[in-house]
Amino acid sequence: MMKKFLQIGAVLLISGLALMGIGAANHGLQSVAIVAGKPTVANSVTHTKNVRPFSAITADVADLDVVVKTGTHYQVKVEADNHTVVHSQVKNGVLQITQKGAPAFGVMLSMNQAARITVTLPQSQKLTNARLYTEEGELTYAAPQTDHLRLTSANGDVTMHDAAAAHTTISTNSGEVTLSRTTLASPQITAQDGDINVAHGTITAAKFILTSGDFNMTKTALHGETTVSNVHGDNAVHHADRRLGYRLQSGTGDNTLFSHAATERNVTTNWTRADRLQLISHDGDNSVD
Which DSSP category does 27 fall into? Predict the structure, then answer.
């Protein structure tokens, strides 16, 4: 009996693959979503609208990427399937974005782009507050100046570039954090299961927290005391400033400070200086060069 079931299953699988090939050859691949318990074709649509000027942003979405960038207009563009409902409005100077209802379960068989919300604001616009949250999407933030910034993705990457913020909190449970050409004061950056990459920026008194991932920093100016705490992963700083103070602490890994490999678990140099960096890895290596 089991052999017969396997034979039937093999026939169905081969037939399904054949039909898929025929459909692809005739542009028949479609995005199929399960809405209200029924399969339906999900067509990609784009909605763009200009909005009133705003000085703050809040976004709370389920399965959409959110991008904030500069442009010529105050604008919101939504690229998603026709079953996705996104509401956006400016109220008391705050751009509010929400995704209505639970995301539909779907099977993506076409080459559609990722569902995305893109917020555009003029280069000269300073934001007093920006809070972006997505459950299953990615966040990309490139607003020039923000007073209070919070970027949270439960299961996606977070990228910040060409931006400055006075108070910053960034976190992701399963994804990477990338900072490029940023100026941040007192940021707290957390990645539970992913890497943190920092490059070509200016960071003051930061806290980087990793559970399972690597920390990489290159060509970044540091002011005040910055701490990197890593449970399972390596910490590496490249093109480091020799004038800073450094403290490297490892549980089971190696410490290398400017090409000098130390046998000690704790390596410290110039720690009394005002600008200093502490690298802590419980199960990984620390290196500064």
Answer: T
